[in-house]
Design a protein that fits this description.
132 residues; mainly alpha; Cytochrome Bc1 Complex, Chain D, domain 2
């Protein structure tokens, strides 16, 4: 009986660990490297502030156009977007196509997989800038 309980527990732990990894399918370390391009306008982490673009702490689940004290374009504020992985990936491939009239001048990430990796990196940060 102990063996079955131990196996059940081990399987549960393995399943939980794999489910956690599925949360952000990309590679956060690779995403951090790609995010170096984004740092010209955006910040993330405990000391992040709005700059040319808004700070990106707590982006997962945040309503677009809602970072405090940032002057968003009207199209971004009224886009109705709540950021999740799928929406972010679509946006970052071609920001002006997803939100016509956005102030974001970035043309988009051209390399396949970069958007997934950047999302994995950004989604680690809570609204307070600390890694979850």
């Amino acid at each position: 009986m102990k063996t079955i309980s131990l196996l059940t527990f081990a399987a549960s732990v393995a399943f939980a660990a794999s489910a956690g990894q599925a949360y952000a399918a990309g590679d956060a370390a690779a995403g951090e490297k790609v995010f170096a391009k984004c740092k010209a306008c955006h910040q993330v982490g405990e000391t992040a502030k709005n700059a040319i673009g808004p700070q990106l702490n707590g982006i997962d689940g945040r309503k677009a156009g809602s970072a405090p004290d940032y002057s968003y374009s009207e199209p971004m504020k009224s886009s109705g977007i709540t950021w999740d992985e799928a929406t972010f990936k679509e946006f970052i491939k071609n920001p002006k196509a997803k939100v016509p009239g956005t102030k974001m001048i970035f043309q988009g990430l051209p390399s396949e997989g970069d958007e997934e990796n950047v999302w994995a990196y950004l989604s680690q940060f809570g609204a307070d800038g600390k890694k979850k």
